[in-house]
């Protein structure tokens, strides 16, 4: 999440761990989730996932946003 200082102020390692913990709390694991060390843009690589994991992630996002299925 961007802060008042701007998105570049967020440490990608911290963001990666925060996302990993949040996803794990709803039973989702992204095995390739990692800070992109090759980038100086502060990117987080979400990696590739099985289609079933992508659908589970979409369901969780919809539920949290109130959009339903």
Number of domains: 1
Provide a count of the helices.
Answer: 2
Terminal-residue CA separation: 25 Å
Low-confidence stretches: none
Largest sheet: 2 strands, antiparallel
Count the E strands. Answer: 2
> What is the oligomeric state here?
single chain
Radius of gyration: 13 Å
Strand content: 5-15%
Share in helix: 40-55%
Mean pLDDT: 87
> From N to C, what is the helix and strand string?
HEEH
Give me the secondary-structure category: mainly alpha
How would you write the strand order of the largest sheet?
A: 1-2
The coarse overall form would be: globular
Summarize the structure in words:
The protein has helices at 12-25, 51-65, and strands spanning 34-35, 44-45. It is mainly alpha-helical and 69 residues long. It has one domain (10-65). It has a two-stranded antiparallel ribbon with strand order 1-2. A hairpin with an 8-residue loop joins strand 1 and strand 2. The radius of gyration is 13 Å and the shape is globular.
Supply the key terms.
2 strands; mainly alpha; 69 residues; two-stranded antiparallel ribbon
């Amino acid at each position: 999440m961007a802060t008042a200082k701007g998105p570049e102020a967020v440490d990608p390692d911290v963001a990666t761990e925060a996302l990993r913990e949040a996803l794990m709390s709803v039973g989702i694991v992204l095995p390739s989730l990692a800070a992109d060390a090759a980038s100086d843009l502060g990117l987080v690589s979400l990696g590739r996932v099985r289609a079933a994991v992508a659908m589970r992630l979409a369901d969780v996002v919809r539920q949290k946003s109130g959009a339903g299925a």
